[in-house]
Amino acid sequence: MTTQSADHLYSKSNPYSSGLLVNRVMTEGSDKETRHFEFSLQDSGLSYEPGDSLGVLPVNCSEVVDDLLSVLGFSGTEPVQIGEESFSLKDTLLHKFACTVLSKIQIKKFNDIARVPALEELLKIENKNDLVDYMWGRELIDLFKEYPQQGLAVEDFVSLLRPMPPRLYSIASSLKAHSEEVHLTVAVVRYDSHGRKRKGVCSSYLAERVGETIPCYFHPNKNFKLPVVQNAPIIMVGPGTGIAPFRAFIEERMATGATGKNWLFFGDRSQKTDYLYGEEWIRYQKEGILNELDLAWSRDQEEKVYVQHKMLERGAELWNWIQEGALFYVCGDASRMAKDVDQALRTIAQEHGSMSEEDSAVWIKSLQKEKRYLKDVY
Ligand SMILES: Cc1cc2nc3c(=O)[nH]c(=O)nc-3n(C[C@H](O)[C@H](O)[C@H](O)COP(=O)(O)OP(=O)(O)OC[C@H]3O[C@@H](n4cnc5c(N)ncnc54)[C@H](O)[C@@H]3O)c2cc1C
Fold this sequence. Notes:
Elements: E1 16-25, E2 34-40, E3 53-56, H1 62-72, E4 79-82, E5 85-88, H2 89-95, E6 97-98, H3 104-114, H4 117-122, H5 128-135, H6 140-146, H7 154-158, E7 162-163, E8 167-170, E9 181-187, E10 190-193, E11 196-199, H8 201-207, E12 213-219, E13 234-237, H9 244-256, E14 262-268, H10 271-274, H11 278-287, E15 292-297, H12 307-313, H13 315-323, E16 327-332, H14 337-352, H15 357-369, E17 373-377
Helix pairs in contact: 1-6, 12-14, 13-14, 14-15
Flavin-adenine dinucleotide binds next to β8, β9, β10 and α8.
């Protein structure tokens, strides 16, 4: 193993090519597809810390690109000049540009070329909600199918595209437990809309790879770190793929012999099919490293149970842990889960800390300021 750090050698613009070692479905029998990935860092000298993310630079799906080319009436061999270099249109679409998710700017640019009265109307400021509804579930190809553009110039088409953005994934491993490896937990985006099967660019790119090299880079996150104080208790709330950094946290705490207590709240649809890393949590409980484990299965009973419900059920103990100096971590869905968890924390402060609603809001702010309430939500 190389001893000198090579972290400065690789970046978004100069990614590291990592060998994909493991690509495993973790949710056999579920209607969700979540996968565990292991990548090799062998002899790279690269390092990361629990709480950091891995940036992945995906390649567009070849069939998706072919479908788009066929709707546009291009062969794919048309030359495209990027900077000093010339590429075929197909290669450009595969590697350089995002060519699925549709944005307002793209519709605007498209309309500058196509001049469609229905789009003119949608683009008016007063119709912004209708525009959002229109974009939901539609991709670039849908625009060209709905409003075909005969004789469109390749340059005009390429001018509609934005560079392919990398995707970030919370790292699910500790280097101390998996030397020269980095692990991820990825929910694969697949859905049907407007009569077509769709898939997320990066999650499906990863899902469909076996034994290849993947361009990636590390994205440090200094705001989502384990406590420096080894005996500080931690509370981790990570339903779904939000579990990823907490697997890294527990592995790291085990490897460093941290004495602080660990409490995990995990949840998903069904215990039978969606218990991500279930065997590891059971083992950690037996070994005494995981002191508390609360599980919320939304579809295993009549009423929906989520992690925030489990927090409220355990409100008194959770309050005690925070009084003892515990750090509170949340990872996963930003749109609903993180808000519901935040509200549950306020309710616990009101019920068990005898605070008013206003006091609990001030308390939450101070917890954040002290860096004891940390979020990695997306
Ligand atoms: C800091 C950070 C950490 C992250 N960690 C993780 C992680 O550990 N694991 C993980 O899985 N993800 C994680 N993500 C999310 C990840 O980066 C990607 O956003 C995710 O994998 C989707 O990317 P994609 O390329 O597969 O999908 P894209 O091609 O980007 O498509 C996603 C888009 O598809 C559309 N869409 C999705 N579902 C539907 C539907 N049902 N109907 C209509 N439209 C729909 C939406 O417009 C959505 O924005 C993280 C994100 C951040 C910022």
